Amino acid sequence: MKPLEGKIAVVAGATRGAGRGIAVMLGEAGATVYVTGRSVRGRPSDMGRTETIEETAELVTANGGRGIPVRVDYSVEADVQALAKLLIEEHSGQLDLLVNDVWGGDSLTEWGKPFWENSLQDGILMQQRAVHTHLVASHYLLPLMVARKHGLVIEITDGSNYNYRGNLYYSLAKISTIHLAQGMAEELRPHHVAAVALSPGFLRSEAMLDHFGVTEANWRDAAQKDIHFLQSETPAYIGRAAAALAADPDILAKSGRALTTWGLSEEYPFTDADGRRPHWGKYAAEQGF
C-alpha cells in the first residue's frame, strides 16, 4: 500500500539521521520527497560527515517514492524562497508535508558544564541553526499549505515535554521547536493545516553508530559501553511515525501536540526496520530517568 502516493513532502535537514529516515520512509509510503540540506556531493557542509542529500534521495526512490535532492541552506532566506518557487513551478504549489529537522547542534553542545562556562557564541549559533532555520522554512513554505487549506508540518525535537534536557542551550533549542509546533497549530487551525512536534527515543543514527564504533549489523555490541543502547531505534522508526501522521485523515485532532515514536507505535501499525517496537518512554520510566 502507498498511502502517500501523489503527496508532496519537503524534509528540511534530510542528509542524515532522523531526517534521512523520515525522507526514506515517506518514500516507502509513496510520496515525492524534496530532500533538502546543505551537504551535496563534492560540497559537504561543515558538519564533518560524508552523507549527502543525493544519497538520501536515491534511497527514497529505491524504497518506492521519488526523491528529489535540492541544496537548501535554511539560514539563507533566498534559498528557501527559491524552493517555494520550485514547488509552485513543478507542482502548482502543492505541499502536503513539511518536516523541520534542521539541527547541527551536536558539535556545539558541551555536556557537564553550567551554561556560563559554555561558549556563548556556540549556544547562540545552536539556536540559529536549530530554531531560526525552522522559522525560515515555515515562513516561506507554509503559505503554500494555507493557500490549499491542507497540510501538515512536523517539528522534530527531543522529548515531549518542557523538562530540562541536561544543557541549557540544547534544552532551549529542543523546547523551542515544541512551542513552534504549538504556536503554529493555533494560527494554522483556521486554515485546516496541522502542526505537531515529534521526538524519537534513543536514536541509532549514523553518527551514534560511529560514536560507539559499531555498524547496524552489530549494533548490539555497543551495549558493552552503554546498556541503554539496547533500547535504541533506527531512523526508520521516526520515519514511519512521520509517514503515519501524514497519512492520518484526522491529523487536525493531533495538531499542537508533542508526540513520540513509541507513543505513536501504540496507535498506528508500524514497526522499526527490524520489526521491533522499542518503547523509550516505558524504559525511561522503569530506569527512573
TrEMBL record:
Source organism, top-level taxon: Bacteria
InterPro entries registered for this protein in UniProt: NAD(P)-bd_dom_sf (IPR036291), SDR_fam (IPR002347)
Pfam families to which the protein is assigned, alphabetical: adh_short
SUPFAM superfamilies reported in the protein's UniProt record: NAD(P)-binding Rossmann-fold domains (SSF51735)
Gene3D superfamilies in the cross-refs: NAD(P)-binding Rossmann-like Domain
Xref: PANTHER family: DEHYDROGENASE/REDUCTASE SDR FAMILY MEMBER 1, DEHYDROGENASE_REDUCTASE SDR FAMILY MEMBER 1
Protein name per UniProt: SDR family NAD(P)-dependent oxidoreductase
Originating species: Paenibacillus spongiae
